[in-house]
Amino acid sequence: MIEPHPSRPLVAMIHAVPAATRIAGHAFAQEFPQATVWNVLDDRLLDDARAAGGLTDALRRRMLRLIAHVMEGGAQGLLLTCSSYGEVVDTARGLWDVPVLKSDEAMFETALAGPYRRIAVAASTPPAVPAAVAQLEALIPAARRDRPVDIVTALSEEAAVAADAEATARHLADALRTAGGADAEVVLLAQYSLTPAREALADLLGVPVLDGAGAAARELRDLLVLGQEQTAAAGTVAP
Asked: Taking the CA of residue 167 as centre, how many other CA atoms within 13 Å lie in the half-sphere pointing to its CB?
């Protein structure tokens, strides 16, 4: 078991694609440099979900075994970077008393807290679309009870094999326009692998584009560092 340093919380990240390791690592270096990051990669998770047409019980158990592995290793926080496996987080939260984040949950909460009435969700792999929309819709009753929100989705599998971030952005922009998302007020990237295209896509569309990696890093930082600091400060106050 890894013994985490008190000032450097051990944050595990479980990835389904190698690119997510680099992208999430960059986000944590920028937003949560205090964290000690532990990367776990199973690069068949997404392909197997695609082949099965979605998550199966066997795939859910496989992800839970990976989660158990990092929990037994001393993880103080966990981020699943693959949106297709977000539903497994609900099970994990009932099994372990450690912050466990879905890949895009913090991003969705940020978008719903904003002024946006029409939100677009963009993806480059089919399983990510229903998974992202399900997470977003599940948060609406608490976050936007009195404010309506309209969700439009766009899928561009060409974006997954584009040569660079600019080409990825062009494919996503085309898919959004085709899907009727040209008038969206904000675009949410449903996969970490699309994060490098965020700025180019924002320039093409002229609206904010949000990604999950940075939002997740800030959320875990607030939970694991700021929360501890506030608790410590409260403990020093004389009764």
From this structure: 8
